[in-house]
Amino acid sequence: MVALNLLDGVGMVAAALTTGAFVPQLLKIWRSRSAADISYGMYIAFITGVLLWLGYGVAIESMPMVVSNAAILLQAIAVLVLKRRFEAQDPTPVIRVSPYRRR
C-alpha cells in the first residue's frame, strides 16, 4: 500500500479540480453540436504543454502529476476530436461580423 503524504493529497485535489474543469466545456460542445469558438492553435499549444508536464511527472515519479495530466490530455484531445467531427457535419462556412465599424 502506498502512503500519501500531505503534499500528494494537495496534488490530488488540485488534479481533480483542474481535470474536472474540462467537463463543462465538453458537455457544452456535445449538447450544442458545435465547437466553432474553440481555437485549434490554443488546444495544440495546450496539449503540447500537457505532454511536457506528463513527461516531467513520469521523470520525477509524481503520481498526482501523471494521473491528472493523462486525464487532462484525454479530455483536451476529446475537445479537438469533437471540434473536427462537428465541423465535418456542418459544411456551412461561418461568417463573423465585427460589432465595430472601421473608419
UniProtKB/TrEMBL annotation:
<feature type="transmembrane region" description="Helical">
    <location>
        <begin position="65"/>
        <end position="82"/>
    </location>
</feature>
<keyword id="KW-1133">Transmembrane helix</keyword>
<feature type="transmembrane region" description="Helical">
    <location>
        <begin position="39"/>
        <end position="59"/>
    </location>
</feature>
<dbReference type="Pfam" id="PF04193">
    <property type="entry name" value="PQ-loop"/>
</dbReference>
<dbReference type="InterPro" id="IPR047662">
    <property type="entry name" value="SemiSWEET"/>
</dbReference>
<keyword id="KW-0812">Transmembrane</keyword>
<dbReference type="GO" id="GO:0016020">
    <property type="term" value="C:membrane"/>
</dbReference>
<protein>
    <recommendedName>
        <fullName>MtN3 and saliva related transmembrane protein</fullName>
    </recommendedName>
</protein>
<dbReference type="InterPro" id="IPR006603">
    <property type="entry name" value="PQ-loop_rpt"/>
</dbReference>
<feature type="transmembrane region" description="Helical">
    <location>
        <begin position="6"/>
        <end position="27"/>
    </location>
</feature>
<dbReference type="GO" id="GO:0051119">
    <property type="term" value="F:sugar transmembrane transporter activity"/>
</dbReference>
<keyword id="KW-0472">Membrane</keyword>
